[in-house]
Amino acid sequence: MFLMTRALLPLLQQGQERLVERYHGRRAKLVARDGNEIDTMFMDRRQHPGSQGRGLRLVICCEGNAGFYEMGCLSAPLEAGYSVLGWNHPGFGGSTGEPFPQHDANAIDVVIKYALHRLRFPPAHVVIYGWSIGGFTATWATMSYPELGALVLDATFDDLVPLALKVMPQSWKGLVVRTVREHFNLNVAEQLCSYPGPVLLLRRTLDDVGSASVTRWLRAGSLAQEAAFYARYHVDDDWCLALLRSYRAHCEDKQEDEEVWGPHGLAFPWRVGQGLSSRRRRQLALFLARKHLKNVEATHCSPLEPEDFQLPWRL
Predict the structure, then answer these.
(1) H helices of the chain, where?
(2) Across residues 141-162, what is the average pLDDT?
(3) What is the pTM assigned to this prediction?
(4) What's the rounded Cα separation, in Å, for the pair 151 and 166?
(5) Same-domain check for residues 246 and 202
(6) Which residue, 47, 114, 154, 306, could crosslink 131 as a Cys pair with Cβ 3.0–4.6 Å?
(7) Average pLDDT over the chain, rounded to whole?
(8) DSSP code of 312?
(9) Distance CA 111, CA 116 (A)
(10) CATH number for the domain harbouring residue 148
(11) pLDDT digits over 198-237, tens only?
(12) Catalytic residues
């Protein structure tokens, strides 16, 4: 990391200067509970929130492997008009320490505390955006702070073990699994299931890292093919919306009886699809996939275009 940072130092300095001069970025060092200093940069749009009040929302960006806030994924929400808080993983750029999972968790923890208590953004206005391996810290954040407003996962993975096995000899399987589970257990899917708020998944169609009816829909090679496949299943959007709203109404009635309210006002899980025919379940699955998954025609490492960054769908 020291050698890589040294090699990239001119680009990192240029990136910092651009964020300060063009976007009035404010740099701060935050001390995590393990003593590591986490380098951050904050761009505030609250005084000029722009169209749809985007600047009133703060997007906290969790960079991918070998990613730095000076030249990383924060450019998409920043150019889209949101307030943005970038930070570097321990050992990256101006952050001290080493990027092990617990150190990363400690880092995002202090970043969120900074956003809520020093920058004074309401939890519901905070969006966590994780790209690639940054999906681990992003899902840890929303798992640990379920009151946060939304989660966007871009080109991430559900678990590190299958990716590690793909690039290691088959005879090493036992060693690989044990090593990952004990030292690098990036259990993104497990953490994601602990967040009750709205989620958007961005899938890079030209990605070489990521890996029924939804599977075939995901294999569509273009937006036109997606639409044609969707139409072939005769998905009735109005029926799907009405059904989901009935689940929500049932959930709200139950909460009023039990006087139990979650951070987003709803309890989960809903029994989605229970009692439906297989045809209706496929239609509902495709409707939900279209709302919560977005295909982006890009490779894994190419920057996300500002117009492709959006907040998750809400019922």
Answers:
(1) 2-23, 75-79, 101-113, 134-144, 160-166, 173-183, 188-192, 213-218, 223-232, 237-258, 278-292
(2) 89
(3) 0.77
(4) 28
(5) no
(6) 154
(7) 85
(8) P
(9) 9
(10) 3.40.50.1820
(11) 999 887 766 544 446 676 776 676 777 778 878 888 888 9
(12) 132, 207, 264
